[in-house]
Fold:
Amino acid sequence: MTQKPKDQISALESGPVRGVASVEVRAFGLPGVPALLLWVLLLVVGGGLLLFGQPLLGGLVVAVTLLVLVAGFFVVQPNQASVITLFGRYVGTERRNGFYWTNPLTSRKKISLRIRNFNSERLKVNDAGGSPIEIAAVIVWRVVDSARASFDVENYEEFVHIQAETALRHLASQYGYDDHQGGQFSLRGNPDEVATALVSELSTRLEHAGVEILEARLSHLAYAPEIAGAMLQRQQAGAILAARQIIVQGAVGMVEMALAQLSERKIVELDEERKAQMVSNLLVVLTSERGTQPVVNAGSLY
Structure:
């Protein structure tokens, strides 16, 4: 039985080995205008050799100039990168704008470095409380490492879209739609904190693809249709309760102020029973949703 090397055994025991991340480096490239002048000069020399009776040498010069040297010219547009490989080996990236010449045997792939954004699809997920919600986000991103975007992922644009959906689902499961208990973050109540958390998670997930997240914010947030009606009633009940609390607090303050001023100005002396009746009447008037119809007592107070 053959024995495995120790380093191979240790590698197998430690789990799957991750590939080394690609690192963007600057490619070799000459300014295109001087190279173009040299190319024209070689064409003139080749044509002169053909005219002066040296067809073999002249034809060779012209053929090499046309078929080989011209293939090395390329143009880099603003906010664009050209990833250059030679026989399957990454040799560098040209980010400088302009007209350049490089090894004509290399292959060149253009990658846009412009800022992009996309609106994710509406996802139906469960929030931290288990309630089904619909959520979507607008994500602004750009490529910052062309080597990773080209070689470390299969398709970096598709990778961004899939990881954005995964991060959005994970984010929704960490927060509740509303803060029903008080003192907690929620998707609806803390949009800035939620956006910061989404940017942080997306940046971690997309680092392998050489992508930078500039901004990410929720563009759609709603309860799922099957519970939207019930949750709307709950929100309305909460709003009514909060309003009632404010109304009651104000009414109690007004009653207290009225009793204090009557006592200070000695307008009328009220016993405890009359005070209780006055408090009851004032609270009814102040907290009622509809206008009250007072009953005027034209007789004596007692």
Notes: The helical segments are 6-13, 32-51, 55-67, 146-151, 156-174, 191-206, 225-265, 272-287.
